[in-house]
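BUG: 3D viewer hangs when loading the predicted structure for this chain

Environment: internal workstation, default settings.
Expected: structure renders.
Actual: progress bar stalls at 90%.

Input used:
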Amino acid sequence: MMRRQLNCLVVATQIGLLAWSGTTVAADQVYVANEGADTVSVLDAASLKTLTSVRVGKMPHNVQVSPDGKLVWVTNNGEPDQAADVSAHKGMAHQGDHGAMGKPGAIWAIDTATNAVVAKVPVGMHPAHVVVSPDGRLAYVTNGGDNTVTVIDTVVRSHVATIPVGQFPHGLRFSPNGKEVYVANLKGGTVSVIDTASQTEVAQVPTGKGPAQTGFTPDGRLAFASLSDENAIAVIDPATRKVIRKVAVGTVPIQLYATPDSRMLLVANQGTRKMPGKTVSMIDLESFKVVKTFVTGAGAHGVVVDRDGLNAYVTNIYANSVSVLDLKNRKVTKTVPVGKAPNGISVKPR
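Structure tokens produced before the viewer hung:
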């Protein structure tokens, strides 16, 4: 009897320690930039319940969790009283042009432990997207208003470089090895290739009309650009820096994201405000065919896949909601309301 009680005590203690350390009970969190509400929603990834809402700068367009999960970087147009006359982020495919900005924008950092804003770093005119290097030391921000990319040191939180790129840079992503950044030049019809060692643009890849976002397979075999004015995805060979094929998807594709096994690509099809898209295309990267079309909500825009490749999270910009996709069973499991005009989305892993 005594031995049984001791065993139970040991098991209970182990469970308690695991719970305290967060190794088994801590859940992923999803961060959503609500561009029309000047907030970032923090969701529990499992339940999709809103945990909190963080006030940030004017018109937050994109969010990115740092590799260590300690910070969330948010692009915005600075303090609300500093922003010029911009009623919405309108430069995105078929919504009109960005309003002229009177002052540079910024990226703000949210501490994921406290959900408090802990840094504000000025960047260029009308910042769109932000990505963080694999080692977490640098953040790259596209400035749609002045055709540049700003590089920020995330440790000292200061400016490192300004890199001229193509016309109206928007989405950008790191290559898996961290040596290059691919930048979608929305109005230039190209993808800029930035060499991260020299902090210079070393090439521009002609892609097609309205490239809005870029991406890579985790194995580095393929790169992509969403062609918002062609309703297609450009598939790029990173070795030759050439488009090797195009794949038709839904109307006005915006963000895209490859699964961790490099087998599938998810593409959010936003459509227009008058004729919203409501789908996410799943492309098989062997056959290059759309093998599944998920129906989410009006204006499917941002998409991210969790680290395990089990779920994807999608912002529905016109429906003010977020949907979760079960990738194994290929179905939408839940859609919940968030703030107004949800745009960028990122996941903080356990």
